[in-house]
């Protein structure tokens, strides 16, 4: 059954393999959570990316763990399909999302002198055409299949050379998300070696996330205008889910206003201020995205608890309302652009009677989740260092 869906490398067939349901829906959602909590401005207009080295640099090394078995399974598939057992290394792993306006014309993935080490590509689709975004169909210039309709869980594997010239249509609406890997035969380009070295320098204690330089999170259609127009990605991602922020600091203390987002802050919905403080905007964003990912799995709030429960929230004071407004006007300058880039069908931002009890449970869930991943990372890292590769260490080894 599965075999009939795979395209073989027969003598005339192009060297490519399409697999359906390679990733589970839960794997796709976990990677989406990581991307929406951590992404920075990408390498092309209207593109956002999350690389593994960025996760390490922002104290979020624990989020490497969900990638490990997936990378391994993909590498095995690629090696097996192209008959190069145990020869390949992973050259790059990244979550990449494309928003309205992004597209790429005909190209091969090794089409620059500095990309010649890229021998094979694997693109895993983490969300679906029609449901999560419109546009964004993938086309091969020659051979079959001519067009791929991205569906969550599917993967396209192909050689990075001119046998597989391809293009992606412009995204018309929504955010199209992929996990993209390149593989190389040249071990000088092994991503694992660099990541293990970064992890070793930056001993992964269980820490709260920390922002990389703040301009990595500033999105503008005209990069030359920098802070004049555009928006902060973290705040924009919270905003489309119905959240604002209130700073715990006096604004005047910061000459560079973006530093404010690196300082403690609180979450706001409408006129309600969530009492708990977050250490910075990335920390708050993780909580918001984890809640978005898991809310439907969390137990219902106790029936007698009023939504907007006094335990968790207070009403915003007049001066706090002013702070919220001022932060919005500073960090979401181009409001229309925020809507155009990030608003989505599943955002449900206008939900009345927001369930803060459930939100609070999500924060506890996030802590448990991070703790579990962190234990796994600490257990695995010595093995990764010994062998020089990142792999799934069976728990029995610990
Ligand atoms: O996302 C895709 O379907 C392919 C993207 C692509 O061609 C690239 O990043 O080189
Ligand atoms: Fe490509």
TrEMBL record:
PROSITE patterns recorded: FE2OG_OXY
InterPro entries: Oxoglu/Fe-dep_dioxygenase_dom, P3H, Pro_4_hyd_alph, Pro_4_hyd_alph_FE2OG_OXY
Extent of the signal sequence: none
Required cofactor(s): Fe cation; L-ascorbate
GO molecular function per UniProt: iron ion binding; L-ascorbic acid binding; procollagen-proline 3-dioxygenase activity
Entry annotated with the keyword Repressor: no
Keywords: Dioxygenase, Iron, Metal-binding, Oxidoreductase, Repeat
Domain Fe2OG dioxygenase: 77-185
Pfam assignment, any one: 2OG-FeII_Oxy_3
EC nos: 1.14.11.7
Top EC class, one word: oxidoreductase
A GO biological-process term: collagen metabolic process
Domain of life: Eukaryota
This protein's name: procollagen-proline 3-dioxygenase
Organism for this UniProt entry: Populus euphratica (Euphrates poplar)
């Amino acid at each position: 059954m599965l075999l009939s869906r795979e395209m073989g490398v027969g003598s005339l067939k192009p060297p490519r393999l399409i697999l359906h349901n390679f990733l589970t829906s839960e794997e796709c959602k976990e990677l989406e959570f990581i991307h929406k909590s951590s992404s920075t401005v990408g390498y092309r207009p209207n593109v956002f990316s999350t690389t593994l080295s960025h996760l390490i640099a922002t104290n979020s090394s624990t989020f490497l763990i969900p990638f490990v078995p997936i990378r391994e399974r993909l590498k095995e598939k690629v090696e097996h399909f192209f008959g190069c057992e145990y020869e390949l290394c992973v050259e790059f792993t990244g979550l990449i999302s494309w928003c309205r306006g992004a597209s790429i014309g005909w190209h091969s993935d090794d089409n620059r002198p500095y990309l010649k080490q890229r021998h094979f590509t694997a693109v895993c689709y983490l969300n679906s055409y029609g449901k999560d975004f419109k546009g964004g169909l993938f086309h091969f210039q020659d051979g079959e299949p001519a067009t791929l309709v991205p569906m969550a869980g599917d993967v396209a594997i192909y050689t990075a050379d001119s046998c597989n010239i391809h293009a992606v249509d412009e995204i018309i609406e929504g955010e199209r998300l992929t996990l993209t890997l390149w593989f190389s035969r040249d071990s000088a380009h092994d991503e694992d070696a660099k990541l293990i070295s970064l992890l070793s320098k930056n001993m992964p204690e269980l820490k709260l996330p920390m922002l990389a330089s703040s301009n990595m999170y500033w999105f503008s259609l005209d990069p030359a205008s920098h802070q004049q127009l555009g928006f902060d990605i973290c705040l924009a991602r919270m905003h489309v889910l119905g959240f604002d922020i209130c700073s715990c600091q006096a604004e005047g203390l910061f000459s560079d206003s973006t530093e404010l987002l690196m300082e403690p802050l609180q979450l706001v919905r409408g006129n309600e201020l969530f009492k708990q403080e977050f250490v910075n905007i990335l920390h708050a964003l993780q909580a918001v995205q984890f809640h978005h990912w898991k809310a439907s799995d969390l137990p219902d709030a106790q029936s007698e608890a009023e939504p907007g429960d006094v335990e968790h929230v207070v009403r915003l004071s007049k001066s706090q309302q002013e702070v919220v407004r001022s932060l919005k006007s500073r960090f979401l300058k181009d409001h229309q652009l925020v809507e155009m880039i990030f608003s989505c069908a599943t955002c449900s931002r206008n939900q009345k009677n927001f369930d803060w009890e459930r939100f609070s449970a999500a924060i506890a869930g996030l802590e448990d989740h991070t703790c579990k991943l962190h234990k796994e990372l600490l257990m695995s890292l010595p093995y990764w260092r010994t062998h020089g590769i990142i792999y799934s260490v069976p728990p029995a080894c610990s």
